[in-house]
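Hi support team,

I'm filing this because I wasn't sure whether my run with uridine-5'-diphosphate-glucuronic acid finished correctly. The job status page said complete, but I'd like someone to confirm that the output block is well-formed before I use it downstream. Pasting the exact inputs I used:
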Amino acid sequence: MRISVIGCGYLGAVHAASMAKLGHEVIGFDTDEKKIEQLSHGIPPFFEPDLQEILTEGIKRGNLRFTGDISALKDASVHFLAVGTPQSQESQAADLTYVQDAIDELCRYLKPGDLVVGKSTVPVGTAEKLTEAVKPTGALLAWNPEFLREGFAVQDTISPDRIVYGVPAGDAGRKATTMLDEVYAQALVEGIPRITTDLATAELVKVSANAFLATKISFINAIAEITETVGADVITLADAIGLDDRIGRKFLGAGIGFGGGCLPKDIRAFTARAEELGKSSSVAFLKEIDAINLRRRARAAELTVEALGGQVVGKKISILGAAFKPNSDDVRDSPALDVAIRLRSLGADVTVTDPQAIDNAKRSHPHLNYEASIERALVNANAVLLATEWSEYKNLDPNWAAEVTSDMVIVDGRNCLDSIRWREAGWRYFGMGKP
Ligand code: UGA
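And here is everything the job wrote out:
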């Protein structure tokens, strides 16, 4: 298939490279010239395992290229829309400016029989409106939400858990399905489930999945608020309830909560859309999910203050992690940086380290101190706060760390350290929701 991908951020760049890996002829478009330049040389503009390899392969093979000229997309017949839908500046709703601009521009080059496929996460009803915009060109529109996780993006794109097509009714829907089946032929042969539905359901599948994941995390974090009040252990509790396969252990990781460019803004956009639909009470619980999540960041800061005896002015606190999760350099709405700012505003001398995300963190939070080397970050620390569970932090040797820091106080914001080992090494260990 001749495929174009509009928007080469986390979603689009990975999608373009993955489609080329599957053997399609792919052209990626973005308005950011620097990004196009990097991608054209096989350099991912962000950290994502395996991406560099498939980018370079595709460019060398000659079936993957990138452009800043939208007219170059006219030769493609399937156009994936992968632009961002960030939270609006003025409200909790999604900002659809990039989607609208992309469609307006793309419409100038669409041909009858082309298929536009939305992948961006959008409020329900968006696809129907875009169908109207595309109609005069004779092209069709489908919605094919993306479920990739940062850090596993390539694997999730090439071999997803499921593929969802939202298509129009009748012949148009059958035609769109046939074209999408050709795009995803390899995954379908491998037996990956395909669900074909209407546009609104497909849009809602995506936001509901993210809302459910956010709810699961905030559920266990709400329970952590109770366990820490009564001296119980949220980790053992999660292990026990997670063994019930109706519940499952995944996404019951209690700690400083969720961040990133998806879960927080998606639950807010879902709430805003439900309010527009006159159904605010249906998803009113998502406001509480958001509030629980933000409270855990405050709690991590409070716990660190408690660990330091009640005041942090002038105390050196080393924060391990800046990215919103490991294996990513993404710092959008990062709980780690939020906690760092809270502690700094209380007068602490905060230093942040991260294996990949320091450059991005410096751009978004230039006033914080950063150290690339973990050893230098830990030097003379009065307390260490683990905020992102990178494997190098999970595997940190407590005896080695003790030689570098000033005091042996560790706050485990992700409950990922072996508390017994750290305590045996002489550290005062504080977990979240644990005694
Ligand atoms: C999320 C979804 O998992 C993807 O399916 C979806 O495609 C993507 O959003 C999107 O909409 O594009 P992602 O943001 O990459 O993916 O990250 P997750 O792995 O979902 O983690 C989100 C946050 O939850 C992270 O800050 C992570 O540390 C936190 N988390 C996760 C917890 O606090 N506890 C857990 O048990 C699991």
